[in-house]
Amino acid sequence: TRVSEITFPMLLRSDARPSCLEAWARQAGMILRWSPGQQWVMITGAPGRIDRSLGVTVNRYRGADGSVFFSENHPAATPANVCDEVAGVGVIRSFERPHNYDVPGSGLLPQQLLNAYDATPLANQGVEGQGQTVVFFETDGFSTKDLQSFSRLLPAGSQSAPNVQVVGGNPNLAPGQGSESTMDIEAVHEIAPAAKLVYINLTSSQFNANSDAGVFLNAFQLANKNWKGAIWNISLGLCESDPMLWNSSDLKMMDDAISTDETTNNNTVFSASGDSGGLDCAPDNAGGQVPESSWQGVSVPASLPSVTGVGGTSLSTTANGGYVGETTWSEPLLSQGTGGGVSSTFPQPSWQTGSGTGGQYDPNRLRQVPDVAADADLNTGTVVVNNGQPVGGGTSLATPIWAGFTSLIDQYLTSHGGHPVGFFNPLLYSLANGTPSYPPFHDITVGANDFYPAGPGYDMTTGLGSPNVWNLARDLAAAGD
Q1: DSSP state, 74?
Q2: Cα–Cα distance, 243 to 255 (Å, whole number)
Q3: Rounded to whole angstroms, what are the CA distances from 182 to 36, 150, 191, 199?
Q4: Sheet of strand 6-12: strand arrangement
Q5: DSSP 244
Q6: How far apart, in whole angstroms, are the C-alpha atoms of residue 86 and residue 450?
Q7: How many alpha carbons fall within 13 Å on the CB side of residue 155?
Q8: Burial of 461 (0-12, 13-18, 19+ CB in 10 A)
Q9: What is the pTM of this model?
Q10: What is the pLDDT of residues 51-60, one digit of tens each?
């Protein structure tokens, strides 16, 4: 059967107004949406018009698992007679819900988490994320009741429940159902209880839920427009190299959308590197099967150069949360562990340099993931209230940990006459390769995921390491003087 209307992206060769493409769309009976400075457009039209204009056929199909989706029968052709304005056409396919990266289990109380990563000196100065905004991109709902219960675990004076602004509606949770979104929100709130929190429901119809790239592009554009200078938390992802989901044009458009936002609006973007130990291209029905080489891969959005990818560790502390040490989070018998590896699309960015980058595991000098890491082990994670589950884990816990700590750092920097960190990656690698006054990272050198070992300096399991928040804040303040 056919679908009534389809929306998909096209990659442009520049950010100049695509006048020829606009004329082409009008003549073809399709709608084109473009904003100044944007290096992509969104095209909407009836399937028949898309078929004729791009040389494809778009139909509905039923997958082996019974799910119904629509897809093009082969890659779309680049339009002719558009003055060479189009660099590529994105995959035309219905939205596939990204994997949530979360592992339930029991762990650190809020004050212990602050102690573990040395954020207590900031909290003692009254730094709790005042004036900062964290935006969550999610595909499931959150429980207000759980958030209210969780707030009672916070120190006295910070026990108000998080006030979450909802965009796209909060999907109802089934009785007895926990959620990724609840854990993400609680993880940031326990670190930065005064920060403004915004929840974006990627499954909402307002994001034209057709292709995955199109959904992300629309959501990124909305966040950029409404919350400039915000910290983005993306605790989900999909296989970078899956041609059914996206192609290189899609990925470049997504990266451009974020890099443009960072340049103009000083945003900071974190995304989880995945929880399958580097097998993040495994099919959904892979449970119990022997892993195949084709399952190896990295996760999007974490692999986008404009994103700070976050890996996972196993954290050891004293009884009050004092830092003892960390190893790579890896549980291969459970098919769990920090994601990480080499992009199949992006070359190594100019800022990704230093000890451990490139080398024998990346002879082609491609983008390496993750950039940093934090606690992800379900046995050492943080206490959450998520339908009775006592602990959170996975790289989707490590990601909001970094987002929450960055909101504290941003507040500290601005209160000392500086500015928010914005695009974090160049600063992180510069500190790692320099001689800052205070050690900003815990370098994790023990362990491995399914493909790459941890080691001194950068590695594709835990990146540059986990944060020493107080040291990192002071180093960044000194760098901005």
Answers
A1: S
A2: 17
A3: 36, 10, 15, 10
A4: 31-33, 40-45, 6-12, 86-89
A5: T
A6: 39
A7: 14
A8: buried
A9: 0.85
A10: 888 988 887 7
